[in-house]
Predict the 3D structure of the following.
Amino acid sequence: KSDSVHPATEATEKALLWTERKYKALFDSIDEGLCIIEILFDLRDRPVDYCFLEVNAAFERQTGIHHATGKCMREIAPKHEEYWFEIFGQVALTGESIRFESYAKELNHWYEVYAFRTGEPAQHRVAVLFKDIDGRKSVEQLKDDFISVASHELRTPLTGIKGYTDLLKRELQQPTQKGNLPALVNKLSKQVNRLTNLVDNLLETTNVSQNK
């Protein structure tokens, strides 16, 4: 009996190896984090955990999780929010893909996520493509904080402008008493300049946010 490998079998093995390497290279070339997970359900079909079957090179950079393959999420992050399991469980059961943004407190990151079922429905496998959006969320938070402060600060010069305008009207209705006009005009001008600076800063912040 010959121990030699049949040429057709050897060619098939080489083809499979080449395909696997090509798939792995493509998998790891994606800048976003990518993982294939298996959702674990209880007897009532409620998702209770998920395990990592495959992760790409960017996964660790995006999550800070090391050597994830073969581990389950509750082992890695026991307090991981329930809605992550619920969302991925729903994808596994229905086959409906989903896009969303959410914060993972245990990982301390905001993520933009696209999840879709992969493989046979009975396998309960979901592919998750995601990226860290902490930078964008920080800009959005700064913008929101600035708008909140600016909205409050705008009230002061507006109140001053209204008050000095009313005083000017009264002064102008009394032609014989115009001694206070220069002072009132000067105060009004300062309040207008203050308001203009606030509006300029608000517009600049909006432009930075739009061009991020």
